[in-house]
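SAMPLE LOG
Freezer: B-3
Tube label: C17
Construct: single chain, 363 aa
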Amino acid sequence: MTAKVEKTKVAILVENHFEDSEFQIPYNALQKAGAEVTALGSRVNEKYAGKQGKVTIQPDGTTTEMRAADFDAVIIPGGMAPDTMRTNMKTVRFVSDAVEQGKLVAAICHGPQVLIEGDLLKGKRATGFRAIRKDMQNAGANYQDAPLVVDGQLITSRQPGDLAIFTAAILRRLGLSIKDTTLPDENDLSADWWVLAEAWGGSTKAEIVDAINTAIRGEQYALRAFEHYAEKVTDTELGAAFNDIRATKQQHISRLEARLSALGGQKTLQSEGSGAWATLKSWLQSSDDASVMRRALGDLQTGVVDTYNLRNSLTDPVTVGIFDEMEVTLAEQEQRIADLYHARTVKEQAKAATPTTGAGVSA
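STRUCTURE (predicted):
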């Protein structure tokens, strides 16, 4: 008689405003691999909606009545949900029990907030979303800025772009496989991870191509804008700063175009005859150095926010890596122009406050 093979059992924690892809991709991949996946929330009679509005899930049970001992692994998606999970002592206890019992525990993005609440990161190598880096370090973690960090039974990743690598690591350590699917080496960041992510419910190729084109159009506009700013200003140091920014914009465009080409995508550019170009050229005609600096600051700040949003919308680690570097560069450039603006504003204020020396008044 053939012995019955027990299914691998995995719990995925949910609360409102979880990051949709960070739930969906591990959930789908594990089911494809034959695992029994159970969604656990704080209330069974409530449907939980993802942060992006793409996924809604009604939990199979709660962390109150379920026990960590009944599962082989626990996954904590990110988004805004972990901030709610960490206030639920039953959820924190469930995760703490899983760690104590040697279960596989995987957390991504803001997911490590639950680990922080349970004092489970002391002395551990781990990663998470950049915004909680200091929180993790304060909780005793050895924070590493990497797509995947594995320390014993603990698996952590940073953001949606890391999801395919994160999920593959979970599958491997649970001894699971998916028919007709080869998992690349976890350290090979140049592999086509986006293909796996797409198959498991992540970004489609069309969505990745669209995001790259959006970024190219933004950088192309900024390249021309800073060319005009450099020509317009009379301040030599400011002009040099604008030219440096132009150079990095060109580098960004080249990297984005190379990625687009590797994906076989077509480039769609904004015409220089568009309303945006006409408005910029008209505005520059009557602008002084201070006004140009303010405009440049606005452009850089818009670029930081737009790149941040694009980065968090994709599950392709290569493209996300480009957006990551762009965001950091844009933030540094923003600070450089802000410092120049501040220095010149203070100088002008000091000049205006200096009394004019007169010839004196006769009695």
